[in-house]
């Protein structure tokens, strides 16, 4: 099952599970208890303070879930986190404790985990963890700073609780439901997520997964991912992630092929489904992605350049034509004015000549 008592290696405090008589495996550091219906039991958890100041510690009991890295997780989660619908009996229905504990300087205290097993027996296991977080500032680790901001390390521990009533074999029941694959983003990187559930009250170890993504009616694999060594908590789900890479999402219909296999149980599962990335989803995710490469649309730039060049040529031709027309009109106007000027002196000379003739005729008559 692995080590279920995990903690930070910084200063502050440390924890130790005091294993009771009904501990199944004495070689582990977590509670692995064989319980009976209707019993009540108190577990002791020792907290050590290695500093010269009092330490205030938050104590939470959380159901075990499967995170998207394929690990069983007991940490604090968001308030709106939805547990799998198959989880009928959670550790929080059985175990309780004080929410805060103060550990005096250089001292040890024991806090209690109170168990109240339901009268009705349960199959498989109930899995959860005690999650402890330091509420005091870790002064030994406040020296690190970045960009003028101090980094304060928190001391965190988790101690697992596994409850069983018998050795009855329960098989894992992994399920993928239609319509549970979609485009998403993690840490600014575009990914495809597929929700996989474990409906059984048993954990599964040494799981391997393989996913391939295709265009809906194509046989060429667009992206794929294979992993091994994953785990799943009882009655939990996680999202198997397939990185899309540095290419932007394209709107369209796609097909996913999923497979899973457990080396421990020898079980295997296969699923297929179709999903769609809408234009709006692609645009939104691509705009916020941090690792998308610029697409090599050289032909687009070439067409744009040719279009701009043609536009410039058309503008130049238009200007030249307009200029020539204007020049032609100017020349025609000048020619018209010149013709007018030539005609005016001829009329004037004719008028001047006419009186002379009249005078001459008059003179002859008088002579």
From TrEMBL:
Residues 13-133 form the WxL Interacting Protein peptidoglycan binding domain. Residues 148-287 form the WxL Interacting Protein host binding domain. The chain crosses the membrane at residues 298-321. It holds the Pfam family WxLIP_PGBD. Residues 330-367 are annotated as: Disordered. Residues 336-346 have a biased composition (Basic residues). Keywords: Membrane, Transmembrane, Transmembrane helix. Residues 347-359 have a biased composition (Basic and acidic residues). This is Uncharacterized protein. It comes from Enterococcus quebecensis.
